[in-house]
Design brief:
- By secondary structure, this protein is mostly helical.
- It is built from 3 helices and no strands.
- It starts with a helix and ends with a helix.
Length: about 80
């Protein structure tokens, strides 16, 4: 999970990712940040985030992203 936190801190170090649970729904991250986030997650974790995973709830918190990453890795 440290790698995920590193990615997020590069995108915006001012966000309290450990406690924030509305990154998407609360518009904490803008569209450019979300695109960068998805690209970095795919590159760092060597996964493909397909359409079925592109839901707000999968990106609203660090925990949700981490669970999504693990689920994708288990599928591949």
């Amino acid at each position: 999970m440290d790698e995920l936190m590193d990615i997020l801190m590069e995108i915006d170090p001012d966000i309290d990712y450990a406690n924030e649970t509305n990154l998407i729904d609360g518009k904490v991250l803008d569209s450019m940040s979300i695109l960068a986030l998805i690209t970095e997650i795919c590159d760092v974790f060597d996964i493909e985030i397909g359409p079925k995973w592109m839901r707000n709830e999968n990106f609203n918190s660090v925990e949700a992203m981490w669970n999504m990453i693990q689920a994708i890795q288990e599928e591949e």
